[in-house]
Sequence to fold (588 residues):
Amino acid sequence: MALQTLIYLVVGASFLLYIGIAVVSRASSTGDFYVAGKGVHPVANGMATAADWMSAASFISMAGLIAYLGYDGAVYLMGWTGGYVLLALLLAPYLRKFGKFTVPEFIGDRYYSQSARIVAVICLIFISFTYVAGQMRGVGIVFSRFLEVDVTTGLLIGMAVVFFYAVLGGMKGITYTQVAQYCVLIFAYTVPAVFIALQMTGNPIPQLAFGGTLNDGSTYLLDHLDTLVTDLGFTAYTDGSKSTIDVFFITAALMVGTAGLPHVIVRFFTVPKVSDARRSAFWALAFIAILYTTAPAVGALARMNLIETVQTGPVGDPAGNLLFSERPEWFDTWAATGLIAFEDKNGDGRIQYYNDANEAFAEQAASYGWAGNELTVDRDILVLANPEIAGLPNWVIALVAAGGIAAALSTAAGLLLVISAAFSHDLLKSVFWKRISERGELLAGRCAAAVAVCLAGYLGYNPPGFVAQVVAFAFGLAAASLFPAILMGIFYKRMNREGAIAGMLTGLLFTLGYLIWFKGVIIEPMAADIPENWLFGISPEGIGALGMLLNFAVAFSVSAFTRPPPAPVQDMVDSIRIPRGAGSAQAH
Fold:
């Protein structure tokens, strides 16, 4: 069967599956729409959480980042998995015990303030729309290549599918749709990895192949990759270039940001019992680990395949002539998307791919007749293109297409529902129209989701960076704004509304300002990549951790000079943390 026909069949079947699940499990009440009726089994919730969180950044972009960053890419693995430990231990069970629908609702009630609720909604909107921009970009990339449509058309198709099952099914429909999407995306991610690992190392387990030898039995994969990239003037794959402080702050921002993401936290409101929230976090981390332990191997194999199929590098044959590989067939297919490009600077018809910013190597390259690097690669394509680069069967390529779409759509749906709940429940129901009926609130939630889908599509068309990079910014905003307020709301009963509001605004404005300064319109993008320009040497991806520290400092300072919370609020904080009956047990 032709590749394009197979892709249409596989992707179309996955769409029908998602829509069918949404129809069967559609929401009939606000409880269904916001928290799936609080009846989701912990294993199913863990799988849905994994799909919700393993977005286009994880499926499409993370291995691409690792492929180019090498050792430095480990910060994404550490940060994006460590956050679930914080969730399981510090947040999930207590938030479930509180028993509300949304994060702003918790903050509004805990800090006895509508103003605090509104500030939390503002933070949530900035976080969620930044995050969803990355997902919609991922949708556009997948559609533009595999369905052979332009990015705009791809976005419109993706928006229509998300609109249908998010607006109709609410959290109940999204939850069970995400269970299906997890199965699709994890199968689509691991199957090509197994094929390519077996093809290049003889070991079908990617995690072991990553540290093993190539088929010759004597050369380690990572040693060979180091040789390939250094022969082209790049930094060795296994060497790190980031400063220790930047690694620390990026890891912290991603870890704490994970624990502060509204669309992840709301997942723990959907289980029947408090103990199920912690069990859900365990299952989510287990399901996530399958992809995250595979990603380093996928990144390394993708980089090696790219180099060896595009150009062998400056390696001489016995006669002293350079060896070039001809432009491969897959290259022209992906070039049509505009995500990979070749500029023939020296007119020889062959691709010269090397680091022309390396002055020492540039001189050597000039002696070969090279006139500068001729290859531009969008790192977001490497996972999607890897099966074609490796020459895998068509059904594997079709499976990867379905997996990439599932990853992007699953997270986009969760984010859009959080945005919808912020407007309909936290603003309309709780602030502006308290007497609205349940039916009216449900309708408002669906309308808000529809508007959010349109805005998400626009952001996907004009994203501020690579998928994983955009998502990292969202994690920084979550770390700097919501996480401290939630953590202090659970564990520090002296924290009052004035301190919480001041802290959230400080963390949000500082982090957002830093991102706009370096990634927006004020400083040119090149300047954003120069560590000398960064505050304390902290990159935009890690600045959220510093914003978090500022949030804590301002919140504690303000609360120390203002009145403590009312006694009922302090008693409520104690009741969240202390198990029922603990006091009487201690008395005996």
